[in-house]
Structure formats: structure tokens, C-alpha cells
Write a structure and sequence with these properties.
The protein is mostly helical. The chain has helices spanning 2-6, 22-25, 31-49, 72-81, 88-99, 136-168, 176-194, 207-210, 214-228, 234-239, 243-254, and strands spanning 16-20, 55-59, 109-111. The protein has a 3-stranded parallel β-sheet, sandwiched between helices. α6 packs antiparallel against α7, α7 packs across α9 and α7 (176-194) packs across α11 (243-254).
Length: 257
């Protein structure tokens, strides 16, 4: 606040504040500390409302510098809880983004270290933000990653083969064998999302009959982006009549413009 007042008559290119991720997720037994960091985050909005530049970097657990790094006991506590540790270079990278993100936008508040080295489904994972509804997308990414692993090398090879066809022989993407391969790959992913055996799936069955709903469709959109590098809207997935029909849509989007 004193710096804000002292520099009020000077035109600044940037005004960067450092806060803690505790201002976002909280920290047990640290109410005053949490409140102070929340104030720092809010102060950025205050400056923006006055037309002044500002950005904040909310720092997570640091590994090689700072208070935690100097205490082996604290390192063990955070590591056992599942926190991902940041390096000094991560902080410098965050600072470089903050310097050029001074206007009111999501980029003007950068949160570092919202990640975990343990699966969120692991009962020993005690990261504070684990049950925060705002971090729900992290659970979605974990499920998609698990599906990627469960589809196995055979389907990973099929993805690569389809990508190669799109690049070298796009005219073959709409051939029956290719569409069947794409449909089987999508079906395997869908079976993982629905926790159902892939053998229960018929490639020509309606997707809603297989169990697809809007929530599962959102996760399938993420999987298609990761596996085939194609983008879909959730509604487009829901409107597909079958796995084969969805495979056709994927093949068409793989064709180079």
C-alpha cells in the first residue's frame, strides 16, 4: 500500500506483487497469512479499477529457495502431502509473464504450483486444493490421463498411424478400415470413461445407448484433442449417432485444409 501511494504520481510500466497460493486455497492454521495474501490478490483488482498497471504471482511450494527449502521437516510434510515443488526458474518464468500482463485479464493473476505429484484419487494426497470445486478440471485431466494409459500401446500406435495417413495419404482416411480403427480407439476410451468392458460396445450403436452423457462428452472432447489433435464442441459429440459416425467426423477434421 505504501509503494502504491509513493508511486501514485509516477507512470509505471509494471507493478508486480508476490503473493502465496494460500490466498487462493487457504492453509490450515494460517488464517492471518491466508487473509494477507488474499488482500494482495485483491489489491491488483483495486489498481486495475483505477486504470493502473498491476499483476500478482501467487507462489506455491518452492524447492530450492525460500522458507520451506531451509527446513527439511517442512519439505517432508509438503512432499508427503503430494505437493509439486517449484524451482527458482519457475518463479522467474512467472515473473516474466506478470511483467507483460499488467491490464485486467486472467493473466494478471498467475498461480504457480497448482499441481500434485500424487494421483488425486490417492487417499494419501492431502493437497489443500484437492476438494476445491474450482480445481475440478484437474480431476478431469487425471481421468483422461488414466484412459490414455489404459488404451495401451496398440491404440497409441493406431493414433500414430492415423496421424501419418492424414499427413501422407489423406484420401485413405475415409476408407472403411481406417474408420473402424478410429471407432475402436474411441470406443476403448469411452469404455474407460464409463467403466464398462469394451466388448459391450457395438460400433454402430447410438452413443446414448452406450451411456454417453454431457459430462462424459466433455471428457471425451479432451481425449480426442490429446489423441488425434482434433477439436470438438461437447454438443457435436452428443449429436453423433454412433462411434462410427464420430470416427467419420474425426477423419474429416484430420484432412489438411
Amino acid at each position: 500500500m505504501e509503494l502504491h501511494k509513493a508511486l501514485s504520481s509516477i507512470t509505471l510500466d509494471f507493478f508486480v506483487l508476490f503473493s502465496s497460493g494460500s490466498g487462493i486455497s487457504g492453509q490450515h492454521g494460517q488464517a492471518n497469512y491466508n487473509a494477507a495474501n488474499t488482500f494482495i490478490d485483491t489489491f491488483v483488482h483495486f489498481r486495475h479499477a483505477q486504470g493502473l498497471p498491476a499483476a500478482v504471482v501467487d507462489i506455491g511450494v518452492m524447492d530450492d529457495i525460500g522458507t520451506v527449502a531451509r527446513s527439511e521437516q517442512m519439505v517432508d510434510i509438503f512432499r508427503n502431502a503430494g505437493h509439486t515443488f517449484l524451482r527458482e526458474q519457475d518463479l522467474l518464468n512467472g515473473l516474466s509473464i506478470a511483467v507483460v500482463s499488467q491490464q485486467a485479464s486472467p493473466r494478471s493473476q498467475l498461480i504457480l504450483g497448482v499441481s500434485t505429484d500424487k494421483a488425486l484419487s490417492d487417499p494419501t494426497n492431502r493437497t489443500i486444493w484437492k476438494r476445491d470445486v474450482r480445481m475440478g478440471v484437474a480431476h478431469q485431466f487425471e481421468r483422461v490421463s488414466q484412459i490414455d494409459a489404459n488404451t495401451g500401446p496398440a491404440f497409441q500406435n493406431e493414433h500414430a498411424a492415423v496421424q501419418a495417413l492424414a499427413k501422407n495419404h489423406p484420401e485413405k482416411l475415409m476408407e472403411e478400415d481406417t474408420l473402424m480403427a478410429i471407432a475402436r480407439s474411441i470406443g476403448s476410451a469411452l469404455s474407460g470413461l464409463l467403466v464398462r468392458p469394451f466388448n459391450d460396445f457395438m460400433l454402430a450403436d447410438p452413443l446414448d445407448a452406450l451411456g454417453l452423457d454431457s459430462v462424459v462428452a466433455i471428457e471425451l472432447v479432451s481425449w480426442l484433442q490429446r489423441s488425434f489433435r482434433v477439436g470438438f464442441m461437447t454438443l457435436e459429440i452428443i449429436q453423433c449417432s454412433s462411434l462410427l459416425n464420430l470416427a467419420e467426423q474425426v477423419a474429416r477434421r484430420l484432412v489438411p485444409n
